[in-house]
Design a protein that fits this description.
Helices cover 1% and strands 49% of the residues. It has 418 residues and is mostly beta strands. It has a single domain, classed as 7 Propeller (Methylamine Dehydrogenase, Chain H), CATH 2.130.10. Strands 19, 20, 21, 22, 23 and 25 form a six-stranded antiparallel sheet that branches. Strands 4, 5, 6, 7 and 8 form a five-stranded antiparallel sheet that branches. A hairpin with a 4-residue loop joins strand 19 and strand 20. It starts with 10 loop residues before the first strand and ends with a strand. This is BNR repeat-containing protein. It holds the Pfam family BNR_4.
Length: 418
């Protein structure tokens, strides 16, 4: 995304286990329980997980962590302790770059401490991180550590997988503005980590090294795979913007399509070149999720219990004024695409910029057939973006639709569910 300053004021609403941004702190009570986390926080939707719920096996930790950057340039996180029913807001870093892209992301370490990653929006070659001193408690964050890279960074997404529990896999947009992956050592006694594999660029968009910006969402199966769904570039830049799906096998370091066909070896001599063309799809039919002639963009990547990927995507018209939400799932033989709803246009009040900013979608973490969407609804305060819950059948048809927020004075946007 192009803008470096996000000037709208947001608050986060906790709705059961889901989160969203809204543009007011004066909200009437809806039909379900909500709690205001902050009235001055914002997040993007490409750095994840931006909220995490962690409950350990012993039952001694049951916390939710929610990260954001506030209007005073401070990176913050709120910790909700569900055992004591207490809430603490934590200052992670003061006076940072004033940009919604810089929300922090969370990783639960094997020893149950919490690691928080953050970075500036593609103008500094490094990440920052802090680690809690106590298990599960981010009110005890240790020192800030700067993790230097060769290229500028944004959107950190960290994972630990059971086939390699001694390392952290970190994905982000980095080398040549493309999806990038590296492996880190676990923190030592002083809280330091280092790269021991990578960083490596994962794919290459054939339009060029610096002129294209594939946007990626990442997901781990928790064992041996890191999934990535991504675009050819930013939808502002190209009227036909493909959606692709690959995964990294961490044991072989191969990049594979959804059928398991090898596309490249990450860190090898050759990058896998992608292109929004019929010729590319004919050559790699199982690497392309959607080739519809729209300015397609991603909102969420999930998976069902069998590990088959599910994607929430938006198809944006040529003039950028109409945003259609879709649920796409891999059946085992094909991508099943279901129209969810029209999401209106861009949600904000700046008509000439960032017209591809939809209200947004989130996939239910417990049931990927359920999608939460931010859609415009006529209400007491005019046409406002409200949250709706959509249930998609395995037959590809939308079943139940439930509106969750009503008569909100300001927009409810960028939902997320832990």
């Amino acid at each position: 995304m192009n803008r470096t300053v996000f000037l709208l004021l947001f608050y986060f609403t906790v709705a059961i286990s889901s989160f969203s941004q809204s543009t007011s702190s004066d909200v009437p009570t809806p039909d379900f329980q909500t709690n205001t986390i902050t009235d001055k926080g914002a997040w993007c939707w490409f750095a994840d997980p931006r909220a995490v719920h962690f409950k350990n096996k012993k039952g001694t930790i049951d916390n939710t962590y929610i990260g954001y950057i506030d209007t005073h340039r401070n990176i913050k996180a709120t910790q909700i302790n569900h055992l004591t029913n207490t809430t603490n807001e934590v200052l992670v870093r003061s006076y940072f770059q004033p940009d919604d892209h810089n929300n922090p992301t969370f990783l639960v370490l094997p020893d149950e401490r919490i690691m928080i990653f953050y970075s500036r929006h593609t103008d500094e070659p490094c990440f920052y991180y802090r680690i809690s001193s106590k298990k599960g408690d981010i009110t005890t964050l240790g020192k800030e550590v700067r993790l230097v890279t060769a290229d500028n960074t944004t959107y950190p997404s960290p994972f630990i997988l059971s086939d390699d529990p001694e390392h952290i896999y970190l994905a982000w947009r980095g080398i040549n503005w493309h999806p990038t992956i590296a492996r880190l050592t676990l923190p030592d006694a002083d809280g330091n980590v280092k790269f021991d594999w990578g960083p490596y660029q994962m794919v290459r968009s054939k339009k060029g090294q610096g002129g294209t910006r594939p946007y990626a969402k990442y997901l781990s199966n928790g064992k041996d795979k890191i999934y990535l769904a991504y675009t050819t570039t930013h939808p502002d830049n190209q009227s036909v913007n493909y959606i692709y799906f690959n995964y990294l096998d961490i044991n072989t370091k191969e990049l594979k399509d959804v059928k398991g066909n090898s596309l490249s070896v990450i860190g090898g001599a050759e990058l896998h070149d992608i292109d929004a063309t019929k010729a590319y799809k004919d050559s790699h039919p199982y690497a392309v999720v959607d080739d519809s002639p729209f300015r397609n963009w991603l909102w969420e990547l999930s998976a069902d219990k069998a590990g088959k990927p599910v994607i929430a995507m938006v198809s944006i018209s040529e003039n950028k004024k109409s945003h259609d939400y879709h649920h796409v799932r891999w059946t085992g033989s094909e991508w099943q695409k279901t129209f969810i709803a029209n999401g209106g246009g861009h949600f904000h009040q700046t008509p000439e910029i960032e017209q591809c900013y939809s209200g947004g979608m989130a996939i239910d973490k417990t049931n990927p057939q359920v999608v939460y969407g931010s859609v415009p609804v006529d209400g007491k305060y005019g046409r406002v973006y409200e949250l709706k819950k959509y249930t998609v059948g395995t037959d590809g048809k939308v079943g139940a639709v439930q509106q969750l927020t009503f008569d909100s004075p300001k927009n409810n946007v960028r939902p997320y569910m832990t």
